[in-house]
Amino acid sequence: MAHKKKQLTLCVDDFGLNEYVNQAVFQLAAAHRISATSCLTQADAWAAGAHQLRGLDIDIGLHINFTEQLGQDTHFHQPLSRLMVSAWLRRLKPAILVRSIERQCDLFEKHMKREPDFFDGHQHVHQFPQIRDALMDVLIRRYDCDDFWVRSTAMRNASLARGLQWKARLIALLGSSALRRRLQRIDFPYNDDFAGIYALAGGSARFEQHMREWLAEAGERIVIMCHPADGVDPKDSIGEQRAAEFAFLKSDAFGQLLTAQATRLARYPT
């Protein structure tokens, strides 16, 4: 008797950052090697890539940014460490946060001609104090909760397999547990498990090792993030590892791994 395949949502973060990331998404989606991508709508390559993105059968979400200066948009941002301190001390101005999220939503809808399938945060900022409040405010006012999901970074099985318990605890302290409780209270859909966190170094071999362990431990309704790119942008601090991830994801070895682990890539089941 055949066993039912596990469903995995494999999400490429940072679409729009540059043409290398965009091309990786297009190629991997065409090869059925990913099932979602999360978009930086303030970035230079967003508008040019969005038209082609509209034709892909994958989940397409908004990657909310508060830490990077992107493109020509004069948006609010702070370095990650400063943003964390500001958020935990509640020194951020809620109105500015709401306006920035609204602007990023506007840019998504302008170029995609529809609403996002899901919401998450660049460097997980969507779970920070004050920012998660602003996000919930925008989602409640602007969207129907039956039509989207929100990325939870709360880890259960898959990421813990690599001895990442300390990172899971750190991310929980940074807001994953609080975000999940908030989503439960207002009945917004979210994923049950999350993986994809590692040092973003070590080449294709290290990424393959992590992916094998994530898939071995993955349960249903898991989201795994990745960061592939079809080339190296010299301005990108993780450009070499992005190219290494892409090399593995498009390889026969990844296809064979999915088969061996009885795993099927799928859009997130809302």
How much of the residues is beta strand, in percent?
A: 5-15%
Global shape: globular
CATH superfamily: Glycoside hydrolase/deacetylase
Look at the structure and give the CATH class: Alpha Beta
By CATH, the architecture is named Alpha-Beta Barrel
User: Domains counted in the coordinates: how many?
Assistant: 1
Low-confidence blocks of residues: none
Query: How many alpha or pi helices?
Result: 9
The proportion of residues forming helix, as a percent range, comes to: 40-55%
Largest beta sheet, briefly?
8 strands, parallel
CATH level-3 fold name? TIM Barrel
How do the SSEs run, as a string of H and E?
EHEHEHHEHEHEHEHHE
Radius of gyration, whole Å: 17 Å
List the SSEs and their pairings.
Elements (H helix, E strand, L loop, with lengths): L5 E10 L3 H12 L5 E4 L6 H8 L5 E6 L15 H9 L5 H19 L5 E4 L9 H12 L6 E2 L14 H21 L7 E3 L7 H15 L4 E5 L12 H11 L2 H9 L2 E3 L5
Helix pairs in contact: 4-5, 7-8
GO molecular function, one term: deacetylase activity
Keywords: Carbohydrate metabolism, Hydrolase, Magnesium, Metal-binding
Cofactor: Mg(2+)
